[in-house]
Please model this.
Amino acid sequence: MRALRGALLCAGLASAACGGGSTPAAPTATAADCSPRGQSGFVRDTLRDIYLWYRELPDPDPAGFASPEAYLEAVRYRLFDTTFSYIAPKAVDQAFFSDSQFIGFGFSTVLLASDDYRVTDVFAGSPAAEAGLERGARILEINGRTVADLVASGALDGAFGPSEIGVTAIVTFRDRGGRELTSSMTKRLVTIPPVALTQTYSSGGQLVGYLVLKNFVTPTTPALNEAFARLAAEGVEDLVLDVRYNGGGLVSVAQHLAGLIGGAPTREQVFVRFVHNDKNTFRDTALRFPQPASALGLERIVVITSRLSASASELMISGLRPYVQVTVVGDRTYGKPVGQYSFDFCDRVLHPVSFSARNARNEGDYFEGIPADCGAPDDLAHALGDPAEGSLAEALRYLRTGACSSTATAAARAQARRRPARQPHQADGWQSLVVAY
Model:
């Protein structure tokens, strides 16, 4: 067993190679027995030590479970941890964090109503892109079953099949132009572009940069360096960071991004503090802001979020707020102020919730999500990056005027009164990081 493989996760929240602060020694454990009972026993023993809520754990016999996943599901502390702790196949885990890849079709969705299932994003070069899917398309049928039927029967979650190469789905959809089309897609290894879009806009006499960030994984750091070098060279004075479909990743990347935004004024300031259970207080530590090349040193930014913005996306907002004016536009975030270590065992990786994350003002515990300051729609009638798109238009307006529009203010108040249901499938365990099929 290799504890952590050099990383703590921010869907999971940290990285042992973060820099800018001392990182605690990695916890270790060994799974010598790869039978179902042995693997469940490994999960039990690991949770008893490192799990943030270990005192709340029941203690069923591991022999009574067919898999370690079943054991974890039976014992997790559901008051806070319904999906945060998870077990993933080792190959899947490494592909995502090392290469920004997963097995799938390469598109994201949102269920707006029981019969209104929309495509929110499509990755370039993916099977979904080749099939003609586009942002805003309305999915009508999956393998011959209507969306309404799938929702009513509780089958929408698994309608696209398992995450295996070669799985095929036939999808009927209506594109933004109103055409009804039917296409077949076959799952394969898909690469998520970490920085999907970098643009600039002239707004109110200022040059505003816009960056769509998909995840916080190893390839994200060089992609961010390239994007910020471009923004710095063009002389941007404000930034809109779009993480509306970003489920998280490595805290080392969130820390690097925060340094690119904060620059010299935040250098060596506390970015995040990690707080463990009472068995592991010696692991409590703080990570500090770096000052990477091409750092912009901004005094304010606008971050576009949705209910799918989680973990490292939220940590970046929280960690910056003691030093930079961060205005959130869009919808309330997912609500994940805790992180995991990763433990290899047999052919799997266990990610148990192991610590809470707090900023320099000791703020955290945003289990209900970080609320939007200016409520705005995820406007599926427009492409991402179109200045007329609802959330981007509100972000640019805020930077121009210093205030939310009256509509956005009303929307933010309405959001504060409710907690929208999580989307199916894409909020569960590892899949909450990918935020895509």
Notes: The mean pLDDT is 90. The longest strand covers residues 195-203. DSSP finds eleven helices and 21 strands in the chain.
